[in-house]
Design brief:
Radius of gyration: 30 Å
Shape: elongated
Strand order of the largest sheet: 1-2-3-4
Number of helices: 6
Distance between the termini: 57 Å
Largest sheet: 4 strands, antiparallel
Number of domains: 1
Length: 204
């Protein structure tokens, strides 16, 4: 009896270290914590790029418009490079590049909705620096123009480029930022690798 008990105790004692070893090494070994932390830091840096670009575009847009409106009267033209590049105080009550005029309030409301969508989309793709730059430019442009619409009832456009009667739509800094953003987003759609789309799934 004593031998059986001792033997049983010995077997149990011998089995315990072997049973405990996998628990100690197998569970404690994985170190997945640093990866999410690095990803969170990266995403946070991209949020700074996103908001930093948006703020930069907004400030530049409003400063240039303030200078122009204090320098020129509505409709007045200032030559920069002959007739090729001119500044003109244009009051745009429509959308981008003067399209769909006399709907400033409607486009102001739509712009606020679009701004919300831009922020939501940035939250989903914030790990991509490329998309954060594109969306930051888009947000800054949208904020610049919606500020005009809600404050003035129209958007101040002033850059006039062309040759003779063949001229591009009059635009501003916000319009330029939006146009660049659209080009970047189209590039990401055509070449997903530019934005790193699909890389995370293949890495996993």
């Amino acid at each position: 009896m004593a031998i059986d008990e001792m033997g049983g105790a010995t077997e149990a004692g011998a089995a315990d270290p072997q049973a405990a070893a996998p628990e100690a090494t197998g569970v404690a070994e994985p170190t997945a914590a640093p990866v999410p932390a690095a990803a969170a830091t990266k995403a946070k840096a991209h949020w700074l790029v996103f908001f930093g670009l948006a703020l930069t575009v907004l400030v530049l847009d409003q400063l240039t418009k303030a200078w122009l409106t204090s320098t020129l009267s509505p409709g007045e033209v200032m030559s920069v490079i002959g007739d090729y590049v001119r500044l003109i105080f244009s009051q745009n009550s429509g959308a981008l590049f003067g399209l769909f005029r006399d709907n400033a309030l409607l486009f102001g409301v739509v712009s606020i909705f679009v701004i919300g969508l831009i922020v939501v989309y940035q939250r989903q793709v914030g790990s991509s620096l490329y998309l954060s730059i594109a969306l930051g430019l888009l947000l800054g442009g949208a904020l610049g123009n919606v500020t005009d619409r809600l404050r003035l009832g129209y958007v101040v456009d002033f850059v006039d480029i062309g040759i003779g009667d063949l001229r591009w739509y009059t635009f501003n800094v916000a319009d330029a930022a939006i146009s660049i953003s659209i080009v970047l987003l189209i590039g990401a759609a055509l070449i997903p690798s530019l934005a790193g789309i699909g890389e995370r799934s293949s890495d996993g």
